[in-house]
Every structure is written in structure tokens, then in C-alpha cells.
Amino acid sequence: MGFSAPAGRESGSVLDDRSREIFRRIVESYLETGEPLGSRNLSRLLPMSLSPASVRNVMSDLEELGLIYSPHISAGRLPTQSGLRFFVDAFMQVGNLSEEERASIDRQIRPADRDQPMESLMAEASLVLSGMSRGAGLVITAKSDPVLKHVEFIRLEPTKALAVLVGDHNQVENRIIELPAGVTSSQLTEAANFLNAHLTGQTLPELRSQLKKLKDEVQGALYALSQDLVERGLAVWSGDSEEGKPSQLIVRGRANLLQGLDDTADLDRLRLLFDDLEKKDSLLEILDLAERGPGVRIFIGSENKLFSLSGSSLIVAPYRDGEDRIIGAVGVIGPTRLNYSRIVPMVDYTAQLLARLSR
């Protein structure tokens, strides 16, 4: 299993064994409860004998290093973002999934039949990740060109129509297209019939190429309309015409993120996170994050600009096709106190499973 993380602060060289143990206990308590840990309770947890006063002195040193902070006067301590990064890099032991966990993922993410659309497996994967973590599971697929077997046009407005594209595995995609002025419903039907006669076993780019070759051979309004529809509508993604944009984002488990919210600040951060998830350009950024390093990657708080304002953590891994090309990403997003050591192997295994199923 691969695992990589952005470089954190090199604080380990200035911490002795006692400081490291106290710091580790503070972070583990935060990841478990989300609450600050005070010196009195901490002194009872330590394997060595230290008074609360001695513990407070060490905590003060850790605070000066920027690893922990006090949310309130006379309160316990919580890890900072830098502290969490240091903990992930220096302390976290990434284990393996249990046989029971692997079997549970395998059981839920598997095709019911050979023709089951990949989208349904993606939905199951995101649901599984959300159920096994404290965050929301997300699965992204990169833009691909499916082999089509049927096209249909449905008029919505005088100058707009819905193009219904059916792939060879019965996946259905709907796109809004602009119509040339004066197009009638019967012409839409004729255009669909014309395209269906030429698209068997082809992708849209291949169909476009074929229509261009036919340009000098086929004359008349029927062909002109079909060509115009392809060039205006079928060649672009609804609401997003840039090449290379991911086509789909599936997120499950948003309700998980509502648990344990105590104040307005938490709700504001969650609102920012939801706003980020709704942005189409965020899909490409998540894919980019997954591509920049091998294996599973962890981003905490402002380490990725996408979710920096909401202060969320992202654990993400790419999945690849049979030719080792990255075709999507799978991950978990949630509060900074995610169970990183448990989620990393979970994300890694799910990515490997989706890669096998997509081949």
C-alpha cells in the first residue's frame, strides 16, 4: 500500500521522549473525543510519573513550537494544523484492513451483473466510505468518451433540447443543447434517426470525425441539422465546455459531517465545505491532488486550497485503468479529527477495487 503526505514541520528533532509522549496523548485524545486535554488528566495517562505542573511546562514548550494551542484560558490543549501534520508524519501507524472489513467492502462494491453501469459501483463505493469513516465518502471519475448505441432528442424550449445518450453498458447521460433557429420536432426526430444509423460502436469524437468525412458526400438540411447538433451540443458537456473536466462527482455521507457540531463557527465551516463540493472546478482540483503523489495522500486544513476555508481534511487516492492511466479518484473528506490511520488503508483498498472493476 502506498502512502504519501505533504511535508510537515521537522519538530521531531527538538522533542525529547517525554515531550513526544505528551504531544501524542494530546493528539490521540483530540482524534478520539474532539475535546481539549488538560494537564491533570494527562498526567494520569502518562506511563512516566509527572506532576500536572511538569506536564504544563512541557505543554508550554509544545505551544511555543506551534504544535498545540489552548482554545480557552485555563483550558486543556488541542493540536494545531501543524501539530496534526507532524503527528501524521512522525507518529501515525498505518495498519491493514481486517479480513472482515475487506469482505464488507468487497460485498458492497461488486457488480450485480456484467452490464451494471460503473456509476452504480461508484455510488456504492462512496456510500461504503461514508459508512466506515466519520466523514463523507467521495468518488470522482474523469471525463471519458463512452461507446454509444442510441441518441434521442427531446425539445424543452424553442431553442433548447435535451440530448439523451445511451452507452453500450446502458449508462444514460443527459445534456442540454442549444438548437439552431427554426428547428421543428420532426427534424429533431429525423436527426436522431440519422445519427443512430451512424453511431453503432462509436464514441462521440469518432462520430464527429465520421460526419466530417461525410460532409462532401451528404447534402441537404437533414445532414446540416445533424452536424450542427453534434457541433453545438454533443461535443460539449452541459455547463462545462473545457476539455479534460471530470464528468461526475458522487458524495455520500454528508449527514456524518453534521454530528458533533456545537457552535455557529462549526456550521459556518460546514457550509463552506458544502459550497466547495458544489463547484464544478473542484472536481478537477481533487483529481489533481490525487495525481501529484503515489498512493494515498492526506491534506489537512489549509494544505489544500480547495477546502482551506472550511478547515477540512481530505484523504484521497487515484485509481487507474488497465493501461495505468488515472481515470478517477476516491477519498474521504471530513473534520480534521478523522481517524487517519484507519481511513488510509480503507481508501487505498477501495481505490484498488474500483481500478479492478473498471477494467
Task: Please provide a written account of the structure.
This protein is of the alpha+beta class and 359 residues long. The chain has helices spanning 17-33, 39-45, 52-64, 81-90, 99-108, 118-132, 185-198, 204-214, 221-234, 264-278, 281-291, 340-357; strands at 3-4, 68-69, 78-79, 136-141, 148-157, 160-167, 172-178, 248-252, 296-300, 313-320, 326-334. Strands 1-9-10-11-4-8 form a 6-stranded mixed beta sheet, with helices on both faces. It has a 3-stranded antiparallel beta sheet with strand order 5-6-7. Strands 2-3 form a two-stranded antiparallel ribbon. A hairpin with an 8-residue loop joins strand 2 and strand 3 (78-79). It is elongated. Residues 5-9, 218-223 and 232-246 have low confidence and may be disordered.
Topology:
Blueprint: E1 3-4, H1 17-33, H2 39-45, H3 52-64, E2 68-69, E3 78-79, H4 81-90, H5 99-108, H6 118-132, E4 136-141, E5 148-157, E6 160-167, E7 172-178, H7 185-198, H8 204-214, H9 221-234, E8 248-252, H10 264-278, H11 281-291, E9 296-300, E10 313-320, E11 326-334, H12 340-357
Q: Main β-sheet, in a few words? A: 6 strands, mixed
Strand content: 15-25%
Per DSSP, the total helix count is 12
Describe the strand arrangement of the main beta sheet, using strand numbers.
1-9-10-11-4-8
From the N-terminal CA to the C-terminal CA, the straight-line distance is 20 Å
